[in-house]
Design brief:
With about 950 residues, the protein is mainly α. The protein contains 42 helices and six strands. The chain is elongated.
C-alpha cells in the first residue's frame, strides 16, 4: 500500500499559486500572484521536492503512469514521452502521478476515524489540483482555444500543444475531479473547465485529422463528459459549455462538436433547468436572458421528439418556479421559450393541449370514490397558480388564451364554489384573471357564442368541459385555513354561471368587455321570448300527458325557460347598476341603440297577443330606446328606416294604451315632428324641467319638482304618462332622502302614480318593502307609501288584496321589532279598509297575532298586534258576514282585557275592541227589532211584498 503520509509531507513543502486570499497552513505557502520568473522558480522548487519523495527516473515514471491509467495504446511511446522535457512538463507528470496516488489511496468519502483527512491537507490537495491543472491541462489545449475574444485560456508563447501529453493528463485528472468532498464551493470549477476543454481539444483534433485516437478511446472521452453531466452540477456543465462555445475562432468541426454536445444535454432530463441557471450566472448585460434561452431552445430544426422533451421540461420547470418563490424570477424564461416552441408547429400545440387536459382531467372525470378527496388542496392551489402564470402574466410570453375556451365553464364553476369561502382571495384573483383573459381575447362572434352557451347552459358547445356534477368545495375540518375538494354522494349540484361572471366583471377594469357582454345578454332576451312563444304553441297542440311526463315537462320548463330568463335579467340588472357600466353606456349609446333596435324588430315578429312578461319587456325596451335616442349623437335618419316599420306594426297590433304611448313617443323622436298625431301633444319641456328639479340635490328643489310632476300626472299629460316608469324610478330614489319634507311629498307622488299604473306600483313597492337588503328607515317609508296608496284607492283596492296583505303579513314575521310593529300597525289600518276581504286570510292573521303575543319580545309590536283586531272590528259593517270570525276575536280580546299580566296599553286596545264589538252588536239587535215591528205593521195593513234586504257594503252593491 502506498505511504500517503509522505505525500502530505510533500504537499506541505510545495508552493502553489492560487487566486484565493493568502492563507498559511504549516509550511505550505499560498502566494497571491507571481511573475513568470517567480513561477519558474516555484516550479523548480516543486520539482525538486517531487524528486525527493518520488525517486523514479522520468521514463519509468511515465511508463508506470501509463500502466496505472490503462493507456496501453501509448506504452510503445513511453520512452519518447519520458524524454527530458521542459520544467512545466516535468512538473505536470510528477503532479499527475501524485494526485492520482492520493486519489486512489485516500477515502475522502468515508467517515471512519482511520480515513479522516486533516482539513489543511484537503486544502493543500485542492490547491495542488488547481495548480497542476493550470500547468498541464491549460497548456496543452487545442490552439484555437487560445485565440479570439474574450480570451478564456492563456499559455506561454513558446508552448506547443502535445495531444499525447494532454491525453495522459485527462486520464490522470479523471481519477480526481469526481471526488465530491473536494468540491468545496467553486474550488474545482476552473479545473473542470480545463478538463472539459482538454476533452473537446482531443475530439476536435481527431475530427480535423490532427491527432489519431481509436474509436474506443473516443467513446471513453465522450463517457467522461457524460460522467461530468451525471455526477456534477448540470449548471456548471452548461456554463463551461457556453464559455467554450463562445469562442468564434473555433473551427467548424469544433463548433459542430460543441453544438451537438449542447443539444444532447439540453434535450436530456434536467437540461433546460441547467441551461437557465448556467446562463443566468454568465449572461451578458446587452442580451436578455429570456431572449437568449428562447432563441437557443425554440429551433425548428430540432426533432419532434426533442421539442416535446423541451416542452415537458419547461412545464416541469414552470411548476417548480410556482412551488419555489426563489425561482419565480426565472418564470419569464420558461414562458417565452414555451410560447415559441408552441408556435413552431401543430404537433407542439397538440402536445400542450394534451398536457392541459391531463392536468384538469381529475376535476372533469375524477377516479376516486364518493365522499373521498379528489385532490389535495395545496396541489389544487399550485395548479391554478401555474395556469395563472402560464396564461396571464404577460401578453407576449404566455400561452394563447384560446386554450382555455373549452375549460371556461369549468373555471367559472370553480370560482363560483371558491368565492363562497374565506381565505381564498389569492385563488379567486387567479381564477378571475384566467376567465377575463380568455373572454377578452375573443372576437365578437366567438364571444357571443361563449356567452350564449354560458347563459343558456348549453353542453354541446365545441369541446365544452365542465366540472364534475358531484364535486363539492367545503371547509376542511382538519385545517381551517384550507378547503377540501371531495366527490359528494348527495348528487349533482345545480348552479348558474351568470352570477359568478357578473361578480368577476364588476370587480375588474375590463369595462369594454363588460359592456359587450351586457349587449350580448340583452340580445338574448327576445330570443328566449320567441322560444317561449313557440313552446307555448307546441304545448297547446300536444296530447294529454301522463302525470309523470307532465311533472317532468313542468320541471324542464321551470329550469330552462323561466330560470334562464330570470338569470339573464338579474345579470343585466346587476351590470347596469355598476357605475363604470353607466359611463360605457353614455359613451357608446349608439351600440346600445342598435341592440335595442334588433330587439324591437324581433318583438314585431311575435303574435298580437303578448304575454304579461313580454308586455313588460317590450315596455322597458321602448323606454330604453327613447332614453338612448335622446342622449345619442347619431342622427335619427340612421335608425328611422330600421325602426319605423316595426314600430308601426306594433302600434297596429297591440291593444295596451300605455304601449301605444311609448311607441308614439319613439316615432316622434324618429321623425322630429310635433304633429305626428293629433292625440299626441307632449309637454316635454315641462316634464324635463320637473325631472331636473327632482334629480337636484337641494330638498326644496326636489319638492318643487314633485309638485310639478303631480300636476302633470293629474292632468294626464301624455308625455308624462309615457314616462311613468322613469318617474317611478326617480320616486324610489327620492324616497330614500333623509329629509322628511322630501319623502312625504314623494309619498303623494306615488298616490298620484297609482291611478296610472296600479298593479306595477303596488307590486314594485311590495318587493321593496320585503327586501331585507334595504335599510330599516327606507322600508318603513315604503310601508307608509303602500298604506297611503291603499287609503287613496279605498275599498276598490280589493283587486290587490293579495299583494297588500301578504306584504304586511310578511313584515310581521321580521326579526326586527320596530319593523314588526310598523307592519302590524299598517296591517291594522289596512284591515279597516279591506274588512270584507280579510275573511280568507283570517286564520293566518290570527296565527301571526298569537305568535307575537306569546313569543314576541318587543312590547310595541304586541300592542300593534292587538290593535289589528280592534281595527278589524271597527271596519265590520254587518256582523252576520263575519260570524265565524267573531268568536275567536272575542275570546282573545276578553282574555287580554281581563288578564292582569297584560300590558296596560294592550288591555286598553282589547277593551276598545270589545267596546266596538258591543256597540255593533247593540246596533244589530236594534236593527233586527225595528225591522220586525215594521213587518208587523205592514202585515196588518196593505198586503204588499217586502223589499229585499240590501247590504250596505260598496262591494256588494257592485
Amino acid at each position: 500500500m502506498t505511504n500517503i503520509t509522505k505525500y502530505w509531507l510533500l504537499l506541505e513543502s510545495m508552493q502553489f499559486a492560487t487566486i484565493n486570499d493568502k492563507k498559511e497552513h504549516g509550511d505550505g505557502q499560498y502566494l497571491k500572484e507571481s511573475s513568470l520568473a517567480n513561477d519558474m522558480q516555484r516550479l523548480s522548487h516543486n520539482v525538486q521536492e517531487f524528486r525527493k519523495y518520488i525517486k523514479l527516473p522520468m521514463k519509468d515514471l511515465v511508463r508506470q503512469l501509463l500502466e496505472d491509467l490503462d493507456l496501453k495504446h501509448m506504452m510503445g511511446e513511453a520512452d519518447e514521452l519520458g524524454e527530458k522535457g521542459d520544467l512545466a512538463t516535468l512538473y505536470s507528470f510528477y503532479g499527475v502521478c501524485m494526485i492520482k496516488e492520493i486519489a486512489n489511496n485516500v477515502n475522502f468519502i468515508s467517515n471512519a476515524k482511520e480515513d479522516l483527512v486533516a482539513e489543511r491537507h484537503k486544502c493543500l490537495f485542492i490547491a495542488c489540483i488547481q495548480d497542476i491543472a493550470q500547468w498541464s491541462l491549460q497548456q496543452q489545449l487545442h490552439p484555437n482555444f487560445y485565440k479570439g475574444r474574450p480570451l478564456l485560456f492563456s499559455r506561454h508563447h513558446d508552448q506547443k500543444t502535445n495531444f499525447k501529453h494532454l491525453e495522459i493528463y485527462i486520464e490522470g485528472f479523471t481519477h480526481v475531479l469526481f471526488i465530491k468532498p473536494l468540491h468545496i464551493g467553486k474550488s474545482l470549477d476552473e479545473p473542470i473547465l480545463q478538463y472539459m476543454a482538454g476533452i473537446f481539444s482531443l475530439l476536435m483534433a481527431c475530427e480535423d485529422k490532427e491527432y489519431v485516437m481509436a474509436d474506443q478511446e473516443i467513446i471513453n472521452k465522450t463517457a467522461c463528459l457524460q460522467r461530468i453531466w451525471l455526477s456534477l452540477r448540470k449548471s456548471l456543465y452548461f456554463r463551461n459549455l457556453m464559455l467554450l462555445k463562445n469562442n468564434k475562432i473555433l473551427s467548424s468541426s469544433g463548433q459542430k462538436i460543441l453544438q451537438r454536445q449542447l443539444l444532447i444535454r439540453l434535450w436530456s432530463p434536467g437540461g433546460f433547468n441547467a441551461l437557465v441557471f448556467a446562463l443566468s450566472e454568465c449572461k451578458k448585460e446587452e442580451h436578455s436572458l429570456e431572449e437568449l434561452i428562447s432563441h437557443l431552445v425554440a429551433q425548428p430544426a430540432y426533432s419532434a421528439k426533442a421539442q416535446k422533451s423541451l416542452i415537458a421540461q419547461i412545464l416541469n420547470f414552470s411548476r417548480a418556479c410556482v412551488d419555489n418563490q426563489e425561482l419565480l424570477q426565472y418564470m419569464g424564461v420558461g414562458l417565452l421559450s414555451l410560447r415559441r416552441l408552441y408556435d413552431l408547429n401543430h404537433e407542439n400545440k397538440t402536445f400542450v393541449e394534451g398536457w392541459l387536459q391531463t392536468q384538469l382531467h381529475i376535476l372533469i372525470q375524477p377516479d376516486c370514490e364518493k365522499d373521498f378527496a379528489v385532490m389535495d388542496w395545496c396541489d389544487f392551489q399550485h395548479l391554478i397558480s401555474l395556469l395563472f402564470h402560464l396564461f396571464c402574466t404577460s401578453t407576449v410570453e404566455c400561452l394563447p388564451s384560446n386554450l382555455l375556451t373549452s375549460y371556461l365553464n369549468l373555471i367559472l364553476n370553480i370560482f363560483y364554489h371558491v368565492q363562497q369561502h374565506n381565505n381564498t382571495k389569492l385563488l379567486q384573483g387567479h381564477l378571475k384573471a384566467l376567465i377575463l383573459k380568455c373572454l377578452h381575447n375573443q372576437n365578437a362572434k366567438d364571444l357571443h357564442n361563449i356567452i350564449e352557451a354560458l347563459s343558456l347552459q348549453r353542453t354541446d358547445f365545441k369541446e365544452w368541459f365542465a366540472l364534475h356534477d358531484c364535486i363539492c368545495f367545503d371547509e376542511n375540518p382538519l385545517n381551517s385555513q384550507e378547503l377540501r375538494i371531495i366527490l359528494t354522494s348527495d348528487g349533482p349540484h345545480l348552479w348558474d354561471p351568470l352570477p359568478a361572471l357578473v361578480i368577476i366583471l364588476k370587480s375588474s377594469t375590463f369595462n369594454l368587455l363588460s359592456f359587450n357582454i351586457f349587449l350580448i345578454l340583452f340580445r338574448l332576451l327576445p330570443k328566449l321570448i320567441k322560444e317561449d312563444e313557440e313552446e307555448k304553441k307546441m304545448s297547446e297542440n300536444m296530447e294529454l300527458l301522463e302525470p309523470e311526463d307532465l311533472q317532468q315537462k313542468i320541471l324542464r320548463e321551470v329550469n330552462t325557460t323561466y330560470a334562464r330568463r330570470l338569470h339573464i335579467i338579474k345579470a343585466l340588472e346587476s351590470l347596469v347598476q355598476h357605475q363604470p357600466m353607466k359611463c360605457m353606456i353614455n359613451e357608446n349609446s349608439n351600440e346600445l341603440l342598435r341592440c335595442l333596435a334588433d330587439i324591437l324588430i324581433k318583438f314585431s315578429e311575435l303574435n298580437k297577443h303578448l304575454s304579461e312578461i313580454n308586455e313588460s319587456t317590450l315596455m322597458i325596451t321602448l323606454i330604453l330606446i327613447r332614453e338612448v335616442m335622446q342622449i345619442s349623437t347619431t342622427r335619427t335618419d340612421d335608425f328611422q328606416t330600421v325602426l319605423s316599420k316595426p314600430l308601426h306594426n306594433l302600434y297596429e297590433n297591440i291593444d295596451q294604451q300605455s304601449l301605444k304611448y311609448q311607441i308614439l313617443s319613439v316615432l316622434h323622436l324618429l321623425q322630429g315632428s310635433n304633429n305626428l298625431n293629433a292625440r299626441y301633444d307632449p309637454l316635454k319641456d315641462q316634464f324635463e324641467e320637473a325631472r331636473d328639479l327632482v334629480e337636484a340635490k337641494e330638498p326644496y328643489l326636489q319638492v318643487e319638482g314633485i309638485e310639478k310632476l303631480i300636476k302633470l300626472i293629474n292632468c294626464r299629460d301624455t308625455y308624462t304618462v309615457s314616462n311613468a316608469h322613469a318617474i317611478v324610478a326617480m320616486a324610489l330614489n327620492t324616497l330614500k332622502s333623509p329629509e322628511s319634507y322630501t319623502f312625504l311629498n314623494c309619498v303623494r307622488l306615488f298616490t298620484a302614480l297609482v291611478h296610472i299604473m296600479e298593479f306595477e306600483i303596488l307590486d314594485l313597492l311590495g318587493d321593496e318593502y320585503i327586501a331585507d337588503s334595504s335599510t330599516l328607515d327606507y322600508r318603513l317609508v315604503v310601508g307608509e307609501v303602500i298604506l297611503k296608496i291603499g287609503r287613496e284607492l279605498g275599498p276598490l283596492c280589493y283587486k290587490y288584496k293579495a299583494i297588500l296583505l301578504n306584504c304586511f303579513m310578511n313584515g310581521c314575521r321580521s326579526q326586527l321589532g320596530e319593523f314588526r310593529m310598523s307592519a302590524f300597525s299598517n296591517l291594522a289600518q289596512l284591515c279597516r279598509i279591506l274588512t270584507y276581504q280579510v275573511y280568507q286570510y283570517f286564520q293566518e292573521l290570527l296565527h301571526l297575532i298569537d305568535c307575537e303575543l306569546t313569543s314576541g319580545k318587543y312590547l310595541p309590536a304586541k300592542r300593534a298586534a292587538v290593535m289589528v283586531l280592534s281595527d278589524l272590528l271597527e271596519g265590520m259593517d254587518n256582523l252576520f258576514d263575519y260570524e265565524e270570525m267573531l268568536l275567536p276575536i272575542y275570546r282573545l280580546l276578553k282574555c287580554l282585557a281581563y288578564s292582569k299580566q297584560s300590558d296596560e296599553q294592550i288591555r286598553i286596545h282589547a277593551t276598545n275592541g270589545l267596546k266596538n264589538l258591543s256597540e255593533k252588536c247593540t246596533k244589530l239587535v236594534e236593527g233586527i227589532t225595528a225591522s220586525r215591528l215594521e213587518k208587523e205593521i205592514k202585515i196588518l195593513g196593505i198586503k204588499d211584498s217586502p223589499k229585499r234586504d240590501l247590504k250596505n257594503h260598496i262591494l256588494e252593491m257592485n
